[in-house]
Automatic annotation (TrEMBL), chain A:
This is glutathione transferase. It holds the Pfam family GST_N. Its EC number is 2.5.1.18. Residues 89-217 form the GST C-terminal domain. Belongs to the GST superfamily.
From TrEMBL, chain B:
Belongs to the GST superfamily. The keyword Transferase applies. This is glutathione transferase. PROSITE patterns: GST_CTER (PS50405), GST_NTER (PS50404). SUPFAM superfamilies: GST C-terminal domain-like, Thioredoxin-like. The keyword Transferase applies. It catalyses: RX + glutathione = an S-substituted glutathione + a halide anion + H(+). Residues 2-81 form the GST N-terminal domain. It comes from Hevea brasiliensis. CDD domains: GST_C_Tau (cd03185), GST_N_Tau (cd03058).
Length: 220, 220
């Protein structure tokens, strides 16, 4: 598949955008990165994702693919000869998709509640967040990656949130490493990969971003 | 070929998605009706994370989440393919499947609420229908083109369950003059081979969803 023209509309702190950056890097695909100002969305973004008007949007030969999990699967299928992210066995693929979907249903929403709420609501979110991470830790078991011996789809889907853990810990006043040491080991292992290193922002920068976001949203 | 079981409930559109795919592909299976008010130990064992139906069990191995099951079936039994073979067209199909997953639940909110909350859910449902009408169908007979595909199966809830909810709550949302394409699609879908012989009885559904609404409103 020719690389022709690949463009990524993204926003630097977005864990969803990071997923696509990692997938592109794993496959060695050259692309143009376009930073979007979500307070002032570009005409291109509105044209390429008219339904949701959200990032990330992957544009390949002028054709848009929206939604991070769909974009990662598209990248895996369109550039299938290098670094496969999903396993080839249908049952293992179904398991990988199940856990990716679990990350989407739980981790993002709970993480947001941790920095955006206080009191009982925050405590409940922290509890469920840790439970969800522990469930994934159990799924990881003794394997180096969720993909087994090699970095795969679930790894790509979950690891971006690692760049947000520091912010969650500061605003939630808790330690994720204390609760899920194996998961943190996994995250550090992933961070040694160049694709992840290049794609995740510095966690202090993310914390700074969340501070500003809270101010802007009027959340104490 | 190992034994296949579908664990579902008769009024569930999610159950039916899997049933339709099994029948369209001519895959023999055994159906197990689950009681959601008294969940079987087997269901809890097969789906410990969500404790929901449908669950497909293939050779003793469970697969959960209807959309994931559909893709598993399509990959394991390639006859009568439900997704296109081109990676970009697959990405578009997955986008619209995700759209109904994300927005479809507003129909259930209309079903179980009243007053302002219901009004908002009706508004959300109308917006969803408008997007589908204007952007998802194009001029095709089915979402899948000339033949029913995975997107059509995912949208079955709109074809058969929406009108039951409309009648139970007394609010018409899918008006033929407002949504001519979508309305035509619902007729084509319900008259399609195999689908036509595999739809839950409308009168029984009316009774079920009317009783369910009364129970849900009482406990709200």
């Amino acid at each position: 598949m020719a690389n022709a023209e690949v463009v990524l509309l993204d926003f630097w702190p977005s864990p969803f955008g990071m997923r696509v950056r990692i997938a592109l890097a794993e496959k060695g695909i050259k692309y143009e990165y376009k930073e979007e100002d979500l307070q002032n969305k570009s005409a291109l973004l509105l044209q390429m994702n008219p339904v949701h008007k959200k990032i990330p949007v992957l544009i390949h030969n002028g054709k848009p693919v929206a939604e991070s999990l769909i974009a990662v699967q598209y990248i895996d299928e369109a550039w299938k000869d290098k670094a496969p992210l999903l396993p080839s066995d249908p049952y293992l693929r179904a398991q990988a998709k199940f856990w990716a979907d679990f990350v989407d249903k739980k981790i993002y929403a709970l993480g947001r509640k941790i920095w955006a709420t206080k009191g009982e609501e925050q405590e409940a979110a922290k509890k469920e967040f840790i439970e969800s991470l522990k469930l994934m830790e159990g799924k990881l078991g003794e394997k180096p990656y969720f993909g087994g011996e090699s970095f795969g789809y679930v790894d790509v889907v979950l690891v971006p949130f690692y760049s947000w853990f520091y912010a969650y810990e500061v605003f939630g006043n808790f330690s994720i490493e204390a609760e899920c040491p194996k998961l943190i080991q996994w995250a550090k292992r992933c961070s040694e990969k160049e694709s992840v290193l290049k794609s995740l922002p510095d966690h202090k920068k993310v914390h700074g971003f969340v501070l500003e976001l809270k101010k802007r949203l009027g959340i104490e | 070929m190992a034994e296949i079981e579908l664990h579902g409930t008769w009024p569930s559109p999610y159950s039916y998605r899997v049933l339709w795919a099994l029948k369209l592909k001519g895959i023999p299976y055994e159906y197990v009706e689950e009681d959601l008010f008294n969940k079987s130990p087997l269901l809890l064992q097969y789906n410990p994370v969500y404790k929901k139906i449908p669950v497909l069990v293939h050779g003793g191995k469970p697969i959960c989440e209807s959309v994931i099951i559909l893709q598993y079936l399509d990959e394991t039994w390639p006859q009568n393919p439900l997704l296109p073979s081109d990676p970009y067209e697959r990405a578009v199909a997955r986008f619209w499947i995700k759209f109904i997953e994300d927005k479809g639940p507003s129909v259930w909110v209309v079903h179980r609420t009243s007053g302002e909350e219901q009004e908002k859910a009706v508004k959300d449902t109308l917006e969803m229908l408008k997007t589908i009408e204007e952007q998802a169908l194009g001029g095709k007979k089915y979402f899948g083109g000339d033949k029913i595909g995975m997107v059509d199966i995912a949208y079955g809830v709109i074809a058969h369950w929406l009108e039951v909810v409309e009648e139970v709550v007394g609010i018409k949302m899918l008006e033929p003059y407002k949504f001519p394409r979508l309305h035509a699609w619902t007729k084509n879908f319900k008259e399609a081979p195999i689908i036509v012989d595999n739809l839950p009885d409308r009168d029984e559904m009316l009774v079920y969803f009317k009783q369910a609404r009364e129970k849900l409103l009482a406990s709200a």
